[in-house]
Amino acid sequence: MLVNIKIFWKLSGFFLITILLFLLIIQYIGSALNFSLAESIFDNILQFIFIIVLAIAVSAGFAWIFVRYFIYHPLNRLINGMNNLADKEFDFRLSEDEKDEFGLLSASFNDMASMLSSSMIELKKNRDYLSSILESSADIIITVSASGKIQMINTGAEAALGYRRFDIVGKPIKLLFADVKERDKAIDKLKYADSVVNFETQFKTKDGEIRDVLLTLSRLRNPTGGIIGTIGISKDITEEKRLQTQLLQSQRYAAIGQVFTGIQHSMKNMLNALKGGAYMVKIGLAKDKRTMLEEGWEIVQEGINGLTEMSMDMLRYVKEYKPKLDQVDLSDALSEIYRVIEKTAGNKGISLELIISSELPKVMWDARMIHSVIMDIVSNALDACAWKNYNGIEKPHVSMRAYPDENNEDFIIEINDNGIGMSEDVKSNIFTPFFSTKSRAGTGLGLSISARMIGVHGGNIVVESEPERGSKFKIVLPLSGPGKNKEKSNGQKSYGS
Amino acid sequence: MAKKVMVVDDDEKTVKFLTAALEENGYEVISAYNGKDGLEKIQSERPDLAILDVMMPKKTGFVLFKQLRRDENLKNMPVIMLTGVAEVLEDLDAESGDTHERPYDSLREAMRKSIMDMRDEGLVKPDLFIDKPIDPELVIEKVRDLIGS
Known about the structure:
The structure holds 2 protein chains of 2 kinds.
Chain A: H1 6-32, H2 37-40, H3 45-86, H4 101-136, E1 140-145, E2 150-153, H5 155-161, H6 165-168, H7 180-189, E3 195-204, E4 210-221, E5 227-236, H8 238-286, H9 290-318, E6 326-329, H10 330-347, E7 351-356, E8 362-365, H11 367-386, E9 397-404, E10 410-417, H12 424-427, H13 446-456, E11 460-466, E12 470-478, E13 492-494
Parallel strand pairs in A: 7-9, 11-13
Antiparallel strand pairs in A: 1-2, 1-5, 3-4, 4-5, 6-8, 9-10, 10-12, 11-12
Helix pairs in contact in A: 1-3, 3-4, 8-9, 10-11, 11-13
Chain B: E1 4-8, H1 12-24, E2 28-32, H2 35-45, E3 49-53, H3 61-70, E4 79-83, H4 86-93, H5 106-121, E5 128-131, H6 136-147
Parallel strand pairs in B: 1-2, 1-3, 3-4, 4-5
Helix pairs in contact in B: 1-6, 2-3, 4-5
């Protein structure tokens, strides 16, 4: 490649000229002193040395001019250019007039400077963009040094906390926490991860006002991985919290309202009996009518019983449901329930039917709970029949069926009636405490208690119903017993129509 | 001759003590435990006044009431309705627009609808609503106001 180097030609040309000049000088001086180079080279050594020295001196002079003009100056310009770049003068460019290597070097220097300058512009743009994001973010963004001193806060932080940058930069970050221990707690969490997300805490503003925030804290590291501090981005959730509390409060009031309405609804039926019975007792005593006294007393007692039952129901509803498991023979359990209800159904003119699949497994469950659930649903079914105005050939009918589900994982007890059925509205509320469609009997707690009892057995109650057509309640219980499945929501489900 | 009062309520206790209270005050009492029987007895016995429970099997008190009002021979008979929500119904009657009903209470909602329907049909509303728990002495007083003793 040496031949392609243009400066080589310059050097060679210059060298040739120097030798020629050298020979010319020798020749000229020789002829002037009347001696030929060949003859007198050894004759007059002193003369010869003089000529040589003169030639070398002239050549050196030329060489110095060459180096100075062709090498030193261009190099100097390059160094100067580098210095300019180092001083961040990215617009500085070298002249590219030279056609030699220095010209090429200058050209590549200029290219490099252009690239550098455009990268710097890009970099600055990015930096400005990022810092404008930080700045304009409404969130509170604060960077903190490894020693816990505030390094930077954005406008969002200024606005939310009431501090100005110059008041707070350099101060300990703990100053901003309503409870200084909270900052340590957040930092403790960073021991196990590089960031803590949505840590709920409170900041204190300059005026001492408390703001609820969600703090996301991340470690800041230098390129070699050393910890240089933290960056915290916090969202002010004071307003959300306030609304949430308000909502919770109003929901609580609404729930209490519902409970009161429910209790009042149940109580008034009992009070009705007490009031009426008491009236009869009063008249019976005043007019000495023993029959009226006795009948009145009986009604009073019914009222007392109703209230007692209601208070027991309420107690049952709030207590913890822990099934006492025992191996239960389903056929026996269902037959027993059937015997209890048969008479009541008969009195109301309702036919009752029990269909048990031949292979009934023995299962682990709380016999008393299941008994109470079945009784509750069956008595609802009887009521649903009693309320319907049957005409034509249809007769009131309630059937109980017990069979293993197709998947062989669950066991199903199905209670069907052809009573009044339920509207969508009623159906979606039947598991709600104190919801009742019955004007007299019931506390409105029955089905919600039942659903919880089935829930603790790992099962659920599925309801299908259609107004005037009747209802179907399916109690689905896992054959594996309550242990395997966790309590499913509230153990209730209603779908279909 | 003693005035005749019809009591229709599916709650036996209520029928029992209302009967006792009315008889004690010199009225003759006929009773029924559901709306269907109630209508039949009213048609055959022609009482001077009917006390109807709202929520009853077979036929609700409102359905029965509407049938009475539509019947030329019975439409002028005074009717007292027993409810748990008389206060709300009175509010409604005062045409205060939407009452402060709680969506929870489907009974209330059902009754509101019935009253609206009745009003649309141009039927005369019940003469009186009495809330449960019922005070028998108050019932006697109101019956006396409506039909005398």
